[in-house]
Design a protein that fits this description.
- It is a single chain.
- A hairpin with a 3-residue loop joins strand 8 and strand 9.
- About 30% of the residues are buried.
- This protein is of the alpha+beta class and about 500 residues long.
- The chain is about 55% helix and about 15% strand.
- Strands 7-6-5-10-9-8 form a six-stranded antiparallel β-sheet, sandwiched between helices. A four-stranded antiparallel β-sheet has the order 1-4-3-2, sandwiched between helices.
- It is built from 18 helices and ten strands.
- It has three domains: about 140 residues, Beta-Lactamase (2-Layer Sandwich), CATH 3.30.450; about 120 residues, 2-Layer Sandwich (Beta-Lactamase); about 180 residues, Orthogonal Bundle (Hypothetical protein af1432), CATH 1.10.3210.
């Protein structure tokens, strides 16, 4: 009721219609009372304008005037209708109760009036005040709906946005800054810090911090249990102060904490902010856990791949491979053909394992230092099929199967195992075809010595459009001449880049 009374009073004084009524009534005072005074002393303590109750020398007269106002208020309260009264010898007044079905929430006193209100005017005035009451109630209702619905709307929008973030990347180094920026945008704060739990050391490690007021911010680890972030993680609940809000991210266990500092408008953090961060932190916690699990799986897969590559390299016919150089080349070439992060990673895995099928080829053929017979060459050509068969049961590496299978296909259709031609050969296999052939050329083989890097590049160029995709060759030739690639090749193979 207090809120309704305050809102009605503010609205009334700002209404153009109320100003017109006041002018018509010869500018009386509007006196608003939140409740009916019980006695004259209570009425004295209300904020009645001085020009209404003048400081007469005759106290009896002052008391009489107050008594008239008090009587009118009590009668209007009882009747729930406008009640007029004789104020003094030359003026009148009126008390109007502000009525709702739930009861009276205040009184509007009009005084002094030059003459009594006519019955017709009373009806007009009553209708106008009742309309103003209904409008105020509607306004409050809309405010309440807005206060209830807005957090939910923002929460739904936040869920949708974080879901898109979750789908866009599983790399924590990309995910966490995006979550931090989203938190700043939603809560309208100046700084956001995201820290993840290190269970072994019982600390929070800073992983992403964005401060709109600074280009660079110093990242600090925090002991669990200390400061707002540490306490939020220890107790598994939000910690809120005037200028900070720390909210734990929980997915079964606490995985980290999002801490926001300093609202843009200088206001304090509120329960509304806390409600919004509840939704955001829940979704962020799921996204982070998924990213962590993906990283564990990726690390396990990469470890398995490196182990297999090591075994291949240490077979009797194995040769030292410039692994870092070729992975670097793929990371440069892939984006030029609009390959995404996942596709490039799978191509790199395929590059490390593309000759894994040679495990099924007899050693004497691979160690032979003379030309192979037709039958022997047919056996060697089965290694893509054997390699694809080996990894076909390993689900995380399923995307590399077509790359391994077709990286020996030629652009002119005279390769193996299927004789695919041109763009029918998968793009990743075309790229690996060039990079793999270059790798083979600059490493020693039982039947020949390694070519120099310039000679190998020229050989690749000569076979553009025959063995290799010309577009891939052009991009490869630019990439292999980069200074960082040249340095890696020299370091890994000990070869001299002739000019």
């Amino acid at each position: 009721m207090e809120r309704l009374f305050s809102k009605f009073k503010d609205n009334w004084e700002s209404k153009e219609e109320a100003r017109a009524l006041k002018k018509y009534l010869k500018n009386p005072a509007w006196i608003f009372l939140p409740c009916a005074p019980r006695k004259i002393e209570d009425l004295k303590n209300t904020q009645i304008p001085r020009h209404i109750i003048k400081p007469h020398t005759d106290r009896k007269k002052v008391r009489l005037e107050l008594k008239k106002i008090l009587g009118a208020i009590k009668r209007s309260k009882r009747k729930k209708a406008l009640e007029q009264f004789q104020y003094d010898e030359r003026s009148f007044g009126a008390s109007f109760p502000l009525v709702l079905p739930a009861g009276i929430f205040g009184f509007l006193i009009i005084c002094p009036l030059k003459k009594k209100m006519s019955s017709e005017f009373q009806n007009i005035f009553t209708s106008f005040v009742n309309v103003a009451i209904r409008e105020t109630c509607k306004e409050i209702e809309l405010e309440d709906i807005n206060r209830t619905v807005r957090p939910r709307a923002i929460a739904l929008s936040t869920v949708h946005t974080v879901h898109r973030l979750m789908m866009s990347t599983l790399d924590l180094n990309e995910l966490l800054p995006r979550v931090a920026r989203l938190s700043l945008q939603v809560i309208r704060a100046n700084r956001c810090s995201i820290k993840l739990v290190d269970k072994k050391r019982k600390v929070l490690l800073p992983r992403a911090t964005i401060d709109l007021r600074k280009e660079k911010t110093k990242l600090k680890k925090v002991q669990i249990g200390k400061y707002a972030p540490g306490r939020a993680v220890k107790h598994g609940r939000p910690i809120r102060g005037k200028n900070y809000l720390a909210y734990p991210m929980i997915d079964e266990d606490v995985v980290g904490v999002i801490t926001l500092y300093d609202k843009l408008d200088g206001s304090n953090f509120t329960q509304f902010d806390e409600d919004i961060m509840k939704t955001l932190s829940e979704q962020a916690g799921i996204a982070i856990k998924n990213a962590q699990l993906f990283k564990e799986q990726t690390d396990l897969t990469l470890g398995s791949i490196k182990c297999i590559a090591y075994l291949l390299e240490n077979r009797p016919h194995g040769v030292h491979r410039a692994e870092a150089s070729f992975l670097k080349l793929i990371s440069i070439i892939g984006p030029k053909f609009n390959m995404n992060e996942s596709e490039i990673k799978m191509l790199q895995y395929a590059a490390m394992l593309h000759d894994a099928g040679q495990i099924g080829i007899p050693e004497k053929l691979l160690m032979k230092n003379k030309g192979l017979t037709g039958r022997e060459y047919d056996i060697v050509k089965t290694h893509p099929l054997k390699g694809a068969a080996v990894f076909s049961k390993f689900k995380p590496l399923k995307p590399i199967i077509p790359i391994m299978l077709y990286h020996h296909e030629n652009f002119n259709g005279k390769g193996y195992p299927k004789g695919l031609k041109g763009r029918d050969i998968p793009l990743a296999a075309r790229i690996l075809g060039v990079v793999g052939a270059f790798e083979s050329m600059i490493t020693d083989k039982p039947y020949r010595k390694a070519l120099s890097i310039p000679a190998a590049i020229n050989e690749v160029r000569k076979n553009a459009g025959i063995q290799f995709d010309p577009d891939v060759v052009n991009v490869f030739c630019c990439a292999v001449k980069r200074r960082d690639v040249e340095k890696l090749l020299k370091k890994e193979l000990g070869v001299h880049c002739e000019k």
